[in-house]
């Protein structure tokens, strides 16, 4: 009946992955389109995922010594212009405020695309001596980048993120911070989102505008494309010199500070959807799912069913994120479908027969497997199942990445393999931007990163055949 129709509304992912993605985010009620082109409305269920991400990440930032602040949405044009590479990099996508009410502003204000310049002006004011360092701040906010083509969560003109900005006494300390925060992102992605990532450095061409070096975690989506999922930048003194962030060092001399910044955004929600989702909809990793268990009473009009379910709810609700769906205007089948579509890791069914047998039915979202468990041990059973699901999702994602990772010795091989199977291509590169550009032109793949873990560096560049410097992971990317 309604069951089939309901699922049919999602495009098959093997047929058309981008359409599948759009179907899932709309039908699972994560987002809706707004009246402003390129901007999204994040609906309650989508925002609850973001709140989970924020809560965990924020804890990790605080555990590594960072504190939260809030900076203004607007940046005066003169400030944005202070660091040349930075302004050039961001200029094409900056939105400007030119009027306040009826009055023309004396100086245009840009709506922040990122806040290095604002943080730098304040650091210039706040930092006096080496004793003030390091300053480790983060802010959770929105930013605006005027994008031409947009896709909810992956690329929108306004998005939510966090941006960490830190100042240090020495080059070594700023380098260590850059890597420390990259590791925080990697740990978060792997442990909480169940997404395996490759840690590495961006090439000169792909690095952040104004950075000395940019580090990234790169994830593979189910269709084999890459998604940059978090970046950490080492600025050296690129901002401290134009912004005059100076401190008195241990010898009593004035010196410029060393800086970093690092960010992760609502893109991560896009990653969760595209790594774990299937043809029935979302599949959420238990550690990040707003709801871990959905309890669906079966034949709820029969005496004792709702009471028994409520009794179980009372026992487990403090331990797990759980909800009971006792709406009486939907069939049980419809409810099953809806919660599957929304990716809730476990469904718990309890009906009159189960009550007689003192059992519940646990159904895994990731595999569809059913198990009958004694209600006496329901807490433990749920806990262990959530762990198994979390682990299984990670393993499946890792397997997909391994199956879709290939190597190539020359550009013909590169093209043929990538066309045959979308995924990561590991190849040697001479370091020349010309080769990087040619690869992009011929294959559509960009250098995702130079992985920290270099398996092989001796040999010939995949593009020009010259002597290689690095092993690079290339892929088409979102
Ligand atoms: Zn080359």
Describe the protein's architecture and organization.
By secondary structure, this protein is an alpha+beta fold. It contains 14 helices and 23 strands. It has an eleven-stranded mixed sheet, with helices on both faces. A five-stranded mixed sheet has the order 16-15-17-18-19, with helices on both faces. Strands 4-6-5 form a three-stranded antiparallel sheet. Strand 18 and strand 19 form a beta hairpin. Residues 430, 432, 435, 461, 463-464, 466 line the site of zinc ion (ZN). Residues 430, 432, 435, 461, 463-464, 466 line the site of zinc ion.
Shape: globular
Cα(first) to Cα(last) distance is: 37 Å
Instruction: Estimate what percentage of residues fall within beta strands.
Output: 25-35%
Tally the beta strands.
23
Helicity range: 25-40%
State the major sheet.
11 strands, mixed
Strand order of the largest sheet: 3-7-8-14-11-10-9-22-23-21-20
Q: Which structural class do you get from the secondary structure elements?
A: alpha+beta
Cα gyration radius (Å): 25 Å
Low-confidence parts, pLDDT < 50 over ≥5 residues? none
Arithmetic mean pLDDT: 96
Bound molecules: zinc ion
Number of helices: 14
């Amino acid at each position: 009946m309604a069951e089939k129709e309901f699922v049919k509304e999602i495009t098959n992912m093997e047929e058309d992955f981008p359409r599948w993605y759009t179907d899932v985010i709309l039908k699972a009620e994560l987002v809706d389109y707004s009246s402003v082109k390129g901007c999204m409305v994040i609906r309650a269920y989508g925002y609850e995922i973001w709140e989970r991400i924020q809560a965990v990440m924020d804890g990790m930032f605080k555990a590594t010594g960072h504190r939260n602040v809030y900076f203004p949405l607007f940046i005066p044009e003169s400030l944005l212009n202070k660091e040349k590479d930075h302004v050039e990099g961001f200029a094409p996508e900056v939105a400007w405020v030119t009027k306040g009410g009826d009055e023309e502003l004396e100086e245009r204000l840009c709506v922040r695309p990122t806040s290095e310049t604002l943080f730098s002006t304040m650091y210039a004011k706040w930092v006096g001596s080496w004793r003030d360092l390091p300053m480790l701040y983060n802010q959770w906010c929105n930013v605006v980048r005027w994008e031409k083509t947009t896709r909810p969560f992956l690329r929108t003109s306004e998005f939510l993120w966090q941006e960490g900005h830190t100042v240090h006494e020495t080059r070594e300390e700023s380098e260590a911070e850059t890597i420390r925060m990259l590791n925080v992102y990697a740990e978060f992605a792997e442990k909480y989102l169940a997404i395996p990532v490759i840690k590495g450095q961006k090439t000169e061409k792909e690095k952040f505008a104004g950075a000395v070096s940019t580090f990234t975690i790169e994830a593979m989506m189910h269709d084999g494309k890459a998604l940059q999922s978090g970046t950490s930048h080492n600025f050296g003194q690129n901002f401290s010199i134009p912004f005059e962030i100076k401190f008195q060092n241990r010898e009593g001399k004035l010196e410029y500070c060393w800086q970093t910044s690092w960010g992760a955004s609502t893109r991560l929600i896009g990653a969760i959807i595209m790594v774990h989702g299937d043809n029935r909809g979302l599949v959420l990793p238990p550690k990040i799912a707003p709801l871990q268990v959905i309890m669906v009473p079966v034949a709820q009009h029969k005496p004792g069913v709702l009471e028994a379910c409520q009794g179980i709810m009372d026992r487990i609700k403090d331990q797990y994120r759980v909800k009971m769906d006792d709406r009486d205007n939907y069939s049980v089948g419809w409810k099953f479908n809806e919660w599957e579509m929304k990716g809730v890791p476990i469904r718990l069914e309890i009906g009159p027969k189960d009550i007689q047998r003192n059992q519940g039915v646990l159904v895994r979202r990731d595999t569809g497997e059913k198990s009958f468990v004694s209600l006496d041990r329901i807490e433990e059973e749920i806990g262990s199942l959530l762990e198994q699901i979390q682990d299984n999702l990670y393993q499946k994602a890792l397997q997909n990445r391994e199956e879709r990772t290939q190597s190539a010795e020359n550009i013909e091989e590169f093209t043929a393999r990538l066309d045959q199977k979308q995924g990561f291509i590991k190849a040697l590169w001479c370091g020349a931007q010309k080769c990087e550009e040619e690869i992009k032109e011929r294959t559509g793949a960009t250098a995702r990163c130079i992985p920290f873990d270099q398996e092989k560096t001796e040999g010939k560049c995949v593009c020009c055949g010259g002597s290689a410097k690095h092993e690079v992971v290339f892929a088409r990317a979102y």
